[in-house]
Task: inverse folding
């Protein structure tokens, strides 16, 4: 389980270009961090994360989408 501060830190580490979005490429560039995201969101892959939680269908995950995914998995403390 992650706190909101830990989740924000994880998101910022994944967001390599600091554009406020995590792309599929950024997820694949950080396999260790992607594994943490998968476990916190109960998804099996970056593709599944995007398919389920990319609510605006832009091909990226923003922090609020990630936060919703972690909340839905009941892993946000």
Result:
């Amino acid at each position: 389980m992650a706190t909101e501060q830990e989740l924000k830190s994880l998101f910022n580490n994944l967001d390599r270009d600091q554009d406020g979005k995590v792309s599929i490429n950024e997820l694949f560039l950080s396999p260790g961090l992607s594994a943490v995201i998968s476990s916190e969101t109960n998804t099996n892959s970056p593709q599944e994360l995007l398919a389920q939680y990319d609510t605006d269908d832009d091909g990226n995950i923003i922090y609020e989408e990630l936060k919703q995914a972690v909340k839905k998995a009941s892993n946000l403390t």
About this structure: DSSP finds five helices and two strands in the chain.
